[in-house]
Amino acid sequence: MLKWVGGAYLVWLGVQLWRAPPPRLDAASSAADGRATVLFRQGLLTAVSNPKALLFYGAFLPQLIRPGVDLLPQLAALLLVFVAIEIVVEYALALLAHRVRPFLARQGRRFNRVCGSLFVAMGAALPLAR
To answer: How many domains does the chain divide into?
Structure first.
């Protein structure tokens, strides 16, 4: 049942993306999206409520903790490593987005339709997969 619901959701997302207008990439539309604190809170709530991230850290972090050693320094070191890696990855994504922006400005509607078609195809294939 879950595969059918997931497949239907992917098809719905694909249709919505197919019908969506091309993305507006001008600076005025970006500035109107919201204040930094609102965007930060939205991102934080999204990250904290992501069950995949919670399961990953719940399964991954205990393997890196040494029993019998102070927990706080170990968690601080893991936090610093995670933040450093996250900064590098997010910066690389921002650079990539900057390079892709001219393409999306020219081909935004076509890009939406290709991605929407892929979502519909995946949604249709999901219930049929083993």
So the answer is: 1
